[in-house]
Specification:
With 270 residues, the chain is α/β, with parallel strands linked by helices. Helices cover 41% and strands 15% of the residues. Bound molecules: guanosine-5'-triphosphate and magnesium ion.
């Protein structure tokens, strides 16, 4: 039986206990990085310290000028499973090619290598690693194809460091995409998502068009269109404290256009 975390655990984001066999489930965390040298060591330690022995970490680095890829390689030497196999690996890509493309490449590799579940996670500490056990527990106990770490279900919260303007913009962007697409996922723009390998195979990552942040919306819409059950688990979303944001105008414009593109495409298929 999956044990629900208590109210305190939900508030603090601490891990709920998973049955031993569930903790052995092959789960790969895919983490795209671009200039995250100040964050990657801490993230790797946090993930490896979780009581989830089946968890592996795949860093997808786009040749970060600050040496993130090399730092990650050195870290990867440190972490091994009991049978001696590596728990952490690094995929090196040649150029900065967008968060969406990095995710598509890393998630495909994770599924090819045998992951049963794949978790998307940013490297900047925004996503609570203490919620991973709960998300995996929900996936295993409900058979959902996608479990969203959600800022916008009851219990979900945003960093206090975000001013009212930024909070409103985030809410608005989320409402914009879900209204155009007619979906009921509360956090459709969020980037902390656990996928079953079956859902990822059905979606076909090679067919995903988003280069940047609209990847999150495109993927969730594809899961819904394929008929997969989607669950949402409340999370607290922290602000980045180390390093710089990679958000720029080009990816913002892509995010504005993408819901319309997806809508037109899906109507064409009806
Ligand atoms: N490999 C790769 N990773 C990227 C790219 N763009 C962003 N990332 C990573 O994707 C994750 C999310 O990017 P952020 O810059 O934190 O985006 P954000 O969360 O919208 O922005 P902040 O609120 O400023 O943190 C981070 O781990 C980045 O390092 C890219 O082009 N390639
Ligand atoms: Mg961030």
């Amino acid at each position: 039986m999956y044990q629900n975390p208590g109210a305190d655990d939900v508030a603090t984001g601490r891990a709920g206990a998973l049955p031993e066999s569930w903790g052995m489930t092959p789960l790969t965390v895919v983490m795209p990085t671009y200039n995250e040298a100040g964050n990657v060591p801490r993230m790797a330690e946090l993930l490896m310290d979780l009581d989830i022995p089946g968890l592996r970490l795949l860093i997808v680095d786009d040749s970060s000028p600050d040496g993130t890829g090399q730092i990650a390689e050195e870290l990867a030497q440190k972490f091994h499973a009991e049978d001696g196999t590596p728990r952490m690996s690094v995929m090196h890509r040649t150029a900065k090619d967008g968060l969406g493309r990095a995710y598509a490449a890393g998630m495909s590799k994770a599924v090819e290598d045998g992951a049963r579940y794949v978790l998307q996670m940013d490297a900047d500490g925004s996503h609570p690693e203490g919620k991973i056990a709960e998300m995996l527990g929900v996936a295993l106990s409900t058979d959902a194809g996608l479990v969203v770490g959600s800022r916008y279900v009851p219990g979900g919260t945003l960093s206090d460091a975000w001013g009212a303007h930024r909070k409103l913009l985030s809410r608005w962007a989320n409402a914009y995409a879900s209204t155009i697409l007619g979906t009921r996922v509360r956090d459709i723009t969020g980037g902390f998502n656990l996928w079953s390998a079956d859902a990822l195979r059905a979606i076909d990552l090679g067919s995903v068009g988003s280069a940047g942040y609209s990847f999150q919306v495109e993927m969730k819409y594809a899961a819904l269109r394929q008929g997969f059950q989607v669950m949402e688990v409340p999370i607290h979303f922290e602000d980045r404290t180390v390093g710089e944001s990679k958000m720029n105008l080009a990816v913002q414009l892509e995010s504005i256009a993408m819901p319309w593109k997806l809508r037109v495409r899906s109507r064409g298929r009806k």
